[in-house]
Amino acid sequence: MNDFIIYLSVGMCLIMTVANGLLWRDIKSPAVLHSLLWLTIVLLHRVVPHGMEVLSVEIYFIVFISMFLFSCGAVLGFNLAGKNHQASRYITVLPDQKIVSLYFYVALLGLPFLILRALDLASHGTTDNFFVNLRLSLIDEENPQGYGVISYFLPIAFSCFFLCLLDKDTSLKSPKIWLPLAICLIYAVFSTGRTFLFLLFIPSLLILSLTRMDFFTLGKALVFFGILLLVFFVIGSFLGRFDAEAEDVSAFWLYLLGGITAFQEIFSTSHPLEYGDNTFRTMYAILAALGFDVEVKGVLQDYVYIPSPTNVYTVFQPYFKDFGIYFALFMQFLFGLMHAVLYGFSKQKNPVAILLYSLSMYPLFMQWFQDQYLSLMSFWLFFAILLSLPFFNMTVWLRKSDADRFGDKIES
User: Are 258 and 310 in contact (CB under 8 A)?
Assistant: First the structure.
């Protein structure tokens, strides 16, 4: 009977995905991408021999309800963004190149400090692997060490690259593209977190697809993500992670499917609610920095065995731990609304909306892994300021008639 209900739940997820595809008719829409993401996760978890515990009926139902509520939020958000979603086919305003150049030189200036700090952090390690030593120093919560203010150079470098991609007339082979990209890759590698590669390349793909109408094809997208996954696991091998993690479950399936399995473990275990310690962590951190006596939860989570150790629990975990499963599902509605508002304005070729919507695809794609929304709120606010600043002295919110005239001028 359980198997029947599980397959019924998977079928409902499939129907929801097809319905979103028919409704939106755009693979770049948040509802379609969200549905495809979670359908892939539940399908693979069901049919692939991964060696982890089988998901319960409740987890499949939670995934389906999250897809439904996210889609409802997306419909509302898209309509809130306005009815005229085809106001212009072209970006009408480009960023101030002086500010973009400033970002580039600031990011370039930060590289020597980054490398010197990385060498210092890795010098205290006990292994022969430089990146393993560096990683252990960066994630050690008992003796916290890190890049400090140097870490702010990374979003500056990434913002420079994203802003350069915005101009559809700039060739992808131009030094204006690959020089900022090279700097971004250095920052990503020395950060040792492989998710920074996703943060770099997922928004890049969305920016290219939204600004270059003939760029995005399904084949290119599959090749792109195939290369990204390959790089992801190659870097993992340099960090020495796979040997220890692959005893019971292959590293690939552990990273791809371990999050939802780990969430099932905490969902099935009773625990007292934490009432915002995770959801509002950023605000508590700000209060602590201002001198208030508040406890700030650590970013790293405790490990659970499924049977291999993992400490990622999907996007549901922090909200579930704070206020229960209904709150975690309600957050999906809010996320859908937020993504769709940005998507609606990006369809009007608002450059700031294109950048912010593309950036927001990173936490959406990481939902299967861990929460990257409110847990990184200060990071996103800083990123949003960096991406918006080059447009402050320009008329981004043009009237339609002015936008059309300016767009025609740019195209000519």
Answer: yes
pLDDT category of residue 387 using cuts at 50, 70 and 90: very high
Whether cis (ω within 30° of 0) applies to the bond prior to 307 is yes
Alpha carbon distance 35, 311 (integer Å): 24
Range with the poorest average pLDDT among 154-158, 171-175, 387-391? 171-175
Of 159, 202, 191, give the one whose Cα is nearest residue 388: 159
Kind plus residue range of the DSSP H or E element containing 305: strand 304-305
Q: Residue 314's beta-bridge partner residues?
A: 370
Q: Where are the beta strands (DSSP E) in 144-250?
A: none
Tokens of 188: 């990503």
What is the residue-wise DSSP string for 82-107? -S-TTS-SS------HHHHHHHHHHH
| Cα-based angle 174, 233, 365 (whole degrees, multiple of 5) | 70
Q: Cβ(332)–Cβ(2) under 8 Å?
A: no
Q: In this structure, which amino acid lies at residue 247?
A: E
Full-model pTM:
0.88
User: For residues 73 and 340, is the Cβ–Cβ distance under 8 A?
Assistant: yes
Range 229-237 average pLDDT: 64
**CA-closest candidate to residue 48, choices 349, 253, 335, 270:** 253
Do 324 and 62 form a contact (C-beta atoms < 8 A)?
A: no
